Amino acid sequence: MTIKIEKKIKGYEVVKPEDKAAAAAPVAEAKEPQVAEVIQMHESLERPETLIGSTFKIKSPLFEHALYVTINDIVLNAGTKYEQRRPFEIFINSKNMDHFQWIVALTRILSAVFRKGGDVTFLVEEMKAVFDPRGGYFKAGGVYMPSIVAEIGAVIEQHMKNIGLIHDPEMSDSQRALIAEKRAAYENATQKKTELSPTDADTNDSAGFPPGATLCAKCNTKALVLMDGCQTCLNCGYSKCG
């Protein structure tokens, strides 16, 4: 293609091929660096061939046979600083077939919510708030469970804590020392008043807290005792006096 020059030529220089390459190089370096795509949990995420998870055993007086709860996790952004484990599916198995229908329905709904993505920790509080009209029961350690659904919720909570999705508020060293001091003072006062009866001794051995302790409204553990005219929990430190 011929180009007609209508203005006067004031100067010129010869541009070699290597000069063109050198001039184009800074332009390539000026491009924005590529950013790795962060994968978030969503319902269109395909299930990998292999998942990692944990299995929990639930032994309830409401069931003849134990329940085995398996929660499998998907690992997002593996090998990067954004790596995260998220619950992907849940299975509940037992020899007891009396409650087969609602157990299957519960596992399918929970798995669907897990795969939906977003904040799934709300499931814990919703399930732990389910009460059995026949009454609840105490686990080992004196923790009260209002229903079998609530204990499944507690298992999910424990699993979410294990993978870092839920974090417990940590007590300070001074608070731990105060609870230990109050517990020792209460046990000494109790021993001076009366000796343990066989029933109380069994309760003390299984629960790990002094006999006569009542249920704490905060942590659902039989560890609430009356000290200095104030109800104090020897498990979580809760006190009605602040």
Q: What's the short version?
A:
The model is unreliable at 198-206 (pLDDT under 50).
Report strand %.
15-25%
The number of distinct structural domains comes to 2
Number of strands: 8
Q: Sheet bearing the most strands, described? A: 3 strands, antiparallel
Structural class: alpha+beta
How far do the termini sit from each other? 90 Å
Catalytic activity: a 2'-deoxyribonucleoside 5'-diphosphate + [thioredoxin]-disulfide + H2O = a ribonucleoside 5'-diphosphate + [thioredoxin]-dithiol
InterPro entries: TSCPD_dom
EC number: 1.17.4.1
Keywords: DNA synthesis, Nucleotide-binding
Please describe the structure with a list of short key phrases separated by commas or semicolons:
alpha+beta; EC 1.17.4.1; 2 domains; 242 residues; TSCPD_dom; 8 strands; three-stranded antiparallel beta sheet
Helices, strands, pairings?
Elements: H1 17-29, E1 52-58, E2 67-76, E3 84-93, H2 100-116, H3 122-128, E4 137-138, E5 144-145, H4 148-162, H5 173-193, H6 198-207, E6 214-215, E7 222-227, E8 230-233
Antiparallel strand pairs: 1-2, 2-3, 4-5, 6-7, 7-8
Give your account of this protein's structure.
The chain is α+β, with helices and mostly antiparallel strands and 242 residues long. The protein has 2 domains: 52-162; 173-233, no CATH class. Helices cover 34% and strands 18% of the residues. α3 (122-128) packs antiparallel against α4 (148-162). The longest helix has 21 residues, at 173-193.
